[in-house]
Amino acid sequence: MRLNELQSVIQQNPDSFVRFGLPDGDYIPRHAHVTEVGHVVKNYIDCGGQIGKEQKVLLQAHVGNDVEHRLRSDRFGKILQLAQRVLPNDQLNVEVEYDCCVVAQYPISEVKPAGQYVDIILTRGRTQCRARDRGEAAANDTCCGTTSACC
Q1: Is 56 a domain residue?
Q2: E strand or H helix that includes residue 67
Q3: Is 51 within a domain?
Q4: 3-state DSSP call for residue 141?
Q5: Residue range 100-145, pLDDT digits in tens
């Protein structure tokens, strides 16, 4: 989901509370704080030798000791507005970083009003072989095949 889409739903529901739904159906505890909004740039070279670049917005969800805390949509919207100072545009995809037992990053699959809440539904991110996705034979033979020379 792109940042502008997230902002639109948040602005349309200013009196709601924000909940983050995990891929297994559980929720991040309701007293979570969004402690950071970051612009993440990843420059990489894949196993086929192709150079690439990805950018995204990363929201850090932190569960603190204040169990009475609840993040309202209007406050969350203000946090996202402040982030405009560090974000190049509002067309970037958004992921949520959360630490339950390990730090994991979850892409947002859907944002929807749900009664007194705005549910931000998270999905599992996946690794991929970009060379194979491009259909490069070398990647299938030497990098991502069953006779992998790189792993």
Answers
A1: yes
A2: none
A3: yes
A4: helix
A5: 778 999 999 999 999 999 999 999 988 888 888 777 655 455 565 5
Instruction: Count structural domains, the chain.
Output: 1
The answer to whether 111 touches 6, Cβ cutoff 8 Å, is yes
Tokens 């007194």 — which residue? 116
Of the candidates 45, 69, 42, the one whose C-alpha atom is nearest the C-alpha of residue 57 is 42
DSSP classification of residue 146: T
By residue count, the chain amounts to: 151
Sign of CA dihedral 62, 67, 69, 72: positive
Note down the domain range covering 78. 3-126
In a domain, 151, yes or no: no
**Token pair listed for 36:** 């950071």
Say if 104 falls within a structural domain: yes
What is the 3 state secondary structure string of 70-134? CCEHHHHHHHHHHHHHCCCCCCCEEEEEEECCCEEEEEEEEEEEECCEEEEEECCCCCCCHHHHC
pTM of the model: 0.85
